[in-house]
Amino acid sequence: MTSPGEQEPESAQLVRPYVITNGRGLPDNDQFNLITLVTASEQRQPSHLDPEKRRLLELCSGGYLSVAEIAGHMGLPIGIVKVLLSDLSTDGYLVTRAPAPPAQLVDVSLLQEVLDGLQARFG
Amino acid sequence: MTQYLQDPALWALIAGTPLAATAIIRGRKARANLRQEKAELEKRAAELESSYAEAVQEAHTRAEEATKSALKSAMRTLQGLANEQQLAISKTQEKYGEHQLLQDLLEIDHMNSQFGRRAQSIAVLCDGWLGRQRAVASVYDVVRSAKGRIRHYTRVEIRSQSNFALVSRAVEPVALALAELLDNATSYSAPDSPIDITIRTVPKGVCVIIDDAGVGMNEEEKNRADKLLSATHATGVTGLGNPPQFGFAVIGVLAARYGFTVSVDSASPYGGVRAVVLLPEDLLTNMPEPEEQPTTHAPAAAEQPRVSASTVSGATAGGLPKRRRKGSISIVPRADSTSAPARTSEETASIMGAFQRGTQSGRSAANPNREGHDPQ
Predict the structure, then answer these.
(1) Which of A54, A80, B112, B360 is deepest in the core (most CB within 10 A)?
(2) Where is this region: Disordered (chain B) (predicted)?
């Protein structure tokens, strides 16, 4: 056990994550992963949202943010953020966009051909 | 007469009378003595009794004190451990935020909160340590925190929010008192019946109203509750009964110590108990929003490099440059606004001067061309 002086800087959150989700764990569907992009929809916010949801919508109101970024800003475990996101998108306050697909590794020979073509024309 | 004189009975009478008289006198004296002795004895007995009662009371107080101090230090250790464990659980939750393990961690967290609350309640009865000082928190958050400290928390529904916040010293006691009320409410009602919480602003402060759909309390229970809640006398640990009932005693002590009032004498619309916690104005403050601001921005600014670095490495392809430009408004202007005022007034003046010279020279240079380039 540490003395109260040492404990002061680190105090656990007042509202625990399980209360925020009311006991729900990770959503079953894989609607969100770390790089899913989310933004607030045009729909007007209701007045009775939980503080966490309201903050999440505020974060997303500026444009697309990834789930990982949101979790970082909110200071909540990603699973909890996913539950909140899934609630909000079910209610239509959020729009999601699948992450941009990772760039295909382009064939080197194709690049070489393009280079050759460019050089033949302009070089 | 002579026949009488010869009667031995007369002589016996004559001889017996002084004897009888002395005997009577002696008897009287003895009785008086006895009475006096009895009075003395009674007095002494009363003295003994009172000193005995005092001794018992003293022993009781001493035992109470000893129990309290032993429990207090034991609880302090347990509370410290519960807090440490909570922090450890928080870190693990962050670490395995995406893992299926999170569900189990949430349950462990819940159990740990209940454990911490139990230790806190006993500590309160022993005049012990309540826990760390909390930051100012909105009444809604305090109610939610209380909700998280009981076993059947999913049955609790918070129907309204509030714009008020609790001052930091009142956050933990009010949360603990509410948790004890909620524990009572869930314990004395059907396992699936809901518990409703309403937060209402009243002229004297803010009321937190807890309605359960239980069986209610009879007169005796109500009287006991009232007595404990008014806290005219401290119950202490030894007066809790067997099995010990902590709830109302804890709430009574907290209410008296921090100056809020709790009443349970009305019935809820569902037939159970309605508990009303009145938080007076001096425990309230008006600032849930400014309280959130620094916590929103400080980590945002601090974490920005880390977050963007991780996402850059994660998704270099399409969305990122665009997202950074639009960005979350809270991040970008902060960084700009802190770097902007770094100019001295001389620099500003010279910049303004340069700007003005530039526009003047531009105008004079553009003037001749202007006629030619003005077809509209």
Answers:
(1) A80
(2) 286-376
